[in-house]
Amino acid sequence: MSASDPTLLARSLRGEAGAFDHLVRRHTPRMYRVALRITGTAAEAEDVVQEAWISAWRGLPEFRGDSAVSTWLYRVVTNAALAYVRRRRPTVSLDAALTPGSGDGSPLIGAGVFADFRADPEGQVLRTEQVEAVLWAIAGLDVSQRVPLVLRELEGLSYEEVAEVLEVSVPALRSRLHRARVALLARLKERS
Amino acid sequence: MSAGGDPLDDPQWEWVRATARAPVPTPAGLIERVLRSVHGVRGTLLSRPLDIRQDGGLLRIGEGAVVLLARRLGAELGAEIGGLHVSAVALDTDGTGGTGAGNRAVLDVVVTVEYRGGADAAAELLRSRLQAALAAQLGTTALAVNVHIADVYES
User: Fold this and answer.
1) Which of the listed residues A14, A26, A53, B77 has the most CB atoms within 10 Å of its CB?
2) Is the dihedral of CA A172, A174, A177, A181 positive or negative?
3) Consecutive sets of 10 residues in chain B, 155 residues long: mean pLDDT of each?
4) Is residue A188 part of a domain?
5) Residue A152, domain member (yes or no)
6) Taking a C-beta distance cutoff of 8 angstroms, is the pair B150, B110 a contact?
7) CATH number of domain containing B115
8) How far apart are CA A85 and CA A77, in angstroms?
9) What is the sign, positive or negative, of the torsion defined by CA atoms of A11, A12, A13, A15?
């Protein structure tokens, strides 16, 4: 049986390099998924994941175990993604990266960044279009709405977990999420 | 959705649920590139600090500090050149034996390149600019820089 996250973290703190490597292998797919859904492009998501793991390594001695390791890593990758998006040059727009109605669908799906449903003949074209629309709509939201939406609606974290990751109160998070959902639906209806 | 209604009750919210279920493949080699970066910062390749010969004497600097500096400079230069993303940075030696004074450290930089044609030329430009930037920061030409292209993607 593979070691638990807290065990691996404790071993990492004791200087066991292989234990941290194990955490990297275990959590990188999830961290990449979060980074991609926040930044909207594969290359930027990879940059974010790299920065996040370096931050995690450097911040290891300060981790007190108050939260689950996965929550801590969500916070690290979210902060890295937020920092990345905020220092992005203003000429680079997520709307441009996810242009709606471009004929061949979202560049992200076309480039294989997100799974392509088109190979499945069972009416998956419709679902692909829906996923494209949602990604486009999320990409157009302000990051203050985009991030909680990604964590709650796409990653499936509980309100308490999202609040912990973002270091806000649950009532404040619920309010922000409601506004984000309304904004997301408005963009979806605008497109369809 | 009716005014004031719960967005979660809107039939179109099913699109969001479908997006949540859509798998997101991890790019090939990403985990290995991350591990390489972490190892670079951790300094597993070289056991001792780097001794870099300068005009005024010898600069002793940790491997992790060199890697972080190179990573930051590489990211800035990559954005400046356009379409270059630094994936991993690690230090190695050129095989002359150790990292003490007189030995030569080699900085390996792994990048992904946005396809616009001329990926090799862009990588070479990054290599020369990064080497110059490091020389300006560390006051030396002791660090050789290699740039490896891990992936070319379509923007």
Assistant:
1) A53
2) negative
3) 77 94 91 87 63 74 82 89 84 57 70 78 91 83 81 72
4) no
5) no
6) yes
7) 3.30.70.1350
8) 12
9) positive
Containing structural domain, residue A22: 1-92
Q: Which of B1, B44, B112 sits opposite A185 (nearest CB)?
A: B1
Which strand (E) or helix (H) includes residue B85?
strand B84-93
* CATH number, domain containing residue A84: 1.10.1740.10
CB contact under 8 A, B19 and A182: no
On whether the CB atoms of residues A78 and A169 are closer than 8 A, the answer is: no
B19 found inside a domain: no
Name the residue among A46, A54, A154 with its Cβ closest to that of B30: A46
Range of the domain at B120: 27-154
Residue A52 carries which side chain, given as an amino acid letter? A
Sequence letter at residue A34: V
Q: Is A178 helix (H, G, I), strand (E, B) or coil?
A: helix
Cross-chain Cβ contact B41/A135 below 8 Å = no
Residue B116 placed within a domain: yes
In a domain, A122, yes or no: no
Q: What ipTM was predicted for this assembly?
A: 0.80
Place of tokens 């500096």: B69
The total of structural domains in chain A comes to 1
pLDDT digits (tens, 9 = 90+) for A43-78: 889 889 999 999 999 898 888 778 899 999 999 999
In chain B, which residues touch A (CB < 8 A)? 1, 7-8, 10, 12-16, 18-20, 22-27, 30-31, 33-35, 37-39, 41-42, 44, 68, 71, 75, 79, 85-88, 112, 114, 153-155
Tokens 């030329």 identify what position? Answer: B121
Task: Kindly determine whether residue A24 and residue B30, on different chains, have CB atoms separated by under 8 Å.
Answer: no
What is the rounded end-to-end Cα distance, in angstroms, of chain B?
Answer: 35
Residue of B nearest to A36 (CA): B24
Q: Which tokens go with A23?
A: 């955490």
**Nearest in space to A50 (alpha carbons), one of B20, B8, B34:** B34
Cα–Cα distance, B78 to A50 (Å, whole number): 15
The answer to whether residue B18 sits within a structural domain is no
